[in-house]
């Protein structure tokens, strides 16, 4: 047995040495903590809160360093200057998407979030074009959000000011908005298929944020064991089935001269390119792209709103100040609109502060070097994973004094006017910035304003006893469960 253990250790060291030498043969990676054989630096990282571990390591190794997740080297960028220099100043070179094993198995290189190369470039360009055609940034999208927000108000009124968990209802609004773009229709909140779809999004986000998934991504062989990755795979299979059913319906009623929604536009593009081999516009890419748009356009926005309500419960003085501004600018006779935002600096600041404070994706989605990159005094080989510590930007104590405190004043100047900040990277930055940023910003402002226009939020416990610490902080920050009462005003 002793001989066997010795052989395993020696083999592990040889593998690590080979990988180490391979990395340095291609380029000079930034220094970092010494990795152990096979496991790399995983034992030195808190997998329940990677961004916290990154911040601790940055104190010793500076704003650019290397860590090993298992046997894979990852260059970490910590702080605004390093992240801006990479994602914005050298955006093209850092625009790749690194491997994320639990989702790579599902995406298989397709879609707009986890793809690379021509697939990513063409799919992203196509998505932006269609979203503009469908009204992104125009009154038509705003109208859809306003209509859906009113449906939410009616649903919340039916709770009769009794304690309720708003998770499902908050998810319905952005999900129906993106549904109207992709499928040309909204779903009734009582629709069982719709409820099942919403449950899928929620379970995927929560399970992807667990510490188990951090381990899975470092050691993909763990797929043979039971774990939360299987919940993700099961839910993605259900989503795929739902999407394929909708695509089939569209194929049967398609009019190439009159596209109704995103699926029609994509099917028409597929027909135009059917003789162009290889084409990026395939059925697999259509399904993956729809899935990406739904996940980016539903769960992230609804989770932000859910977390936002929790913070407003914790700080009733902020809620009261917001409602005072709403009453002054909008009153109760009409729905809030985007034109109101310029006259509602406090509400605008609250929405931005919610996103800053919750730090929904602490390290974002990992990037990858698209070519050998000379970055500062280092040479980063093509394909190297790049981790951007967005938490270090959103919690920068010079830009946002006392960043651990929820304070809308972080986005207000001395005169009470809204103050923009280059450090606001809630949607990442550069060429991989979230495609749906504009839509999400509209939804957050209009929906939260509509809720506070119609309801006073009442907690079930004393506000000082409300805990806003996320239950998971891995891939994303998952807010704790919370019930509240929506009191009509």
UniProtKB/TrEMBL annotation:
Keywords: Endoplasmic reticulum, Heme, Iron, Lipid metabolism, Membrane, Metal-binding, Microsome, Monooxygenase, Oxidoreductase, Signal. CDD domains: CYP2C-like. GO terms for molecular function: heme binding; iron ion binding; oxidoreductase activity, acting on paired donors, with incorporation or reduction of molecular oxygen, reduced flavin or flavoprotein as one donor, and incorporation of one atom of oxygen. It is a peripheral membrane protein. GO terms for biological process: monocarboxylic acid metabolic process; terpenoid metabolic process; xenobiotic metabolic process. GO terms for cellular component: endoplasmic reticulum membrane. This is Uncharacterized protein. It comes from Pongo abelii (Sumatran orangutan). The lineage of its organism: Eukaryota, Metazoa, Chordata, Craniata, Vertebrata.
